[in-house]
RNA sequence: GGCCCCGUCGUCUAGCGGCCUAGGACUCUGGCUUCUCAAGUCAGCUACGAGGGUUCGAAUCCCUUCGGGGCUACCA
């Protein structure tokens, strides 16, 4: 029996989680769910100068919002915690000491300045910059001398001659010659651990079986494997690696602040649905193999396999995300749509959230559902139903003050006044009979004038439905008001 | 510079030696529908980076080349 699959997502929250992080998290999660395995969430906060509590909490919040639930990690706990590396310092210290004792690692007394000088020289000589092994085999006298100078040492892993090979699930057989993998630092001079130590130790201790991560970590894999060896892990207990291709910005550079929106918080504020974001991101670097594209989270889990992940990088395309978001919004039930819409309307101060307002919003949602691609468009679309100080947008004013329009409005007023059952059918029947048939006007001209008078804009939800929602009193008073302009 | 990864329409992709005069989706263009805007629907544009091989046959295999990206930290 093969062991149960455990996939981990281990971000280093040095800022808000961005699109690339989330795509990785999504794949990690989907793979765990697909295989019936465990999804583990770990915070890599060994770089205390860059990771903050605020970012950690934001990361937790973002994953929850997206619906990527984890089985082990912050808040939910688990048998292999703690899941914040900053709380596991003693564990790393133990292994670092052991590595030194085993001579797998050694103290390096070179100062940052000296190392930089070496690299500078290497660059000048057109050589590959990298640690030159200066402190690999210091004598006791040399060590004593350094100590007398008061030098603090880092712990460096000794890379043996030879190479490392491993099978990447996405890229196949990978081979790295140790000539190009210099001895690397495990522990800083102040005693704090580095990612290089912590990832490897944690993946083993937390019994992670599959490491799916960004391809930027591909060339650091031999270092992780070196740590497994030093830990005495047997080959069959090494995690399996799969290096995901990048998500890039429009100009082919890595996605960044200046190159497309990266922060998931931005997408949330804009009114993208989590399911749309996940659906779109899943299609970046992966496809189910057939022509299916509109997938629910459930279908995603059922269909997702690492083998189907592409090896080439993908460009982020906002237009396609928008298209998918529009699809997802249209697929929402009215109750769900209402739940998503309300916060946007309240935040924009279109409504306060009162019961009668919510009821009206609920009636109005069906007519705007197929007209928006983002939830943030809702306030502008429904504003006309709620504004106290109604005013026609300046750029459309002329279309309602011209004499032809005046005739249309005057006639409309006359025809609408007697209507007792204020429904869009009755409104439409009355206006069509008078404006189109009797006055012989083109619908777009006639209805255009009424639209501007009642909704304040040339663009609105369907006119008759809008007027029904607005109510008879408000509709008539707005038309009457337009007549006086 | 060195090491590594990658290369099919504008974009995301299907394709894993013959089913490909390369399919789907988004975008774009045009038509239909139509009270505006959408939605829907129909049609169209556009791709195997280049050059060599291997083969009866290559987008699919090999080599070279060009192009893009990553790593080369006491970041992750």
From TrEMBL:
One GO BP annotation here? glutamyl-tRNA aminoacylation
Domain Aminoacyl-tRNA synthetase class I anticodon-binding, chain residue ranges per copy: 339-483
| Family annotation (Pfam families) | Anticodon_2, tRNA-synt_1c
> Which cellular components does GO assign to this protein?
cytosol; mitochondrion
Q: What class of enzyme is it?
A: ligase
The EC number on file is 6.1.1.17
> What InterPro entries does this protein's entry cite?
aa-tRNA-synth_I_cd-bd, aa-tRNA-synth_I_codon-bd_sub2, aa-tRNA-synth_I_CS, aa_tRNA-synth_I_cd-bd_sf, Glu-tRNA-ligase_bac/mito, Glu/Gln-tRNA-synth, Glu/Gln-tRNA-synth_Ib_cat-dom, GluQ/Sye
Localization per Swiss-Prot or TrEMBL:
Mitochondrion
Please report the stretch or stretches of sequence annotated as the Glutamyl/glutaminyl-tRNA synthetase class Ib catalytic domain.
4-322
Q: Which GO terms describe its molecular function?
A: ATP binding; glutamate-tRNA ligase activity; tRNA binding; zinc ion binding
Do the record's keywords include Mitochondrion? no
Instruction: Report the PANTHER family cross-referenced here.
Output: GLUTAMATE--TRNA LIGASE, GLUTAMATE--TRNA LIGASE, MITOCHONDRIAL-RELATED
Family, according to the entry, reads as follows: Belongs to the class-I aminoacyl-tRNA synthetase family. Glutamate--tRNA ligase type 1 subfamily.
Identification of the protein by name: glutamate--tRNA ligase
User: Source species, please?
Assistant: freshwater metagenome
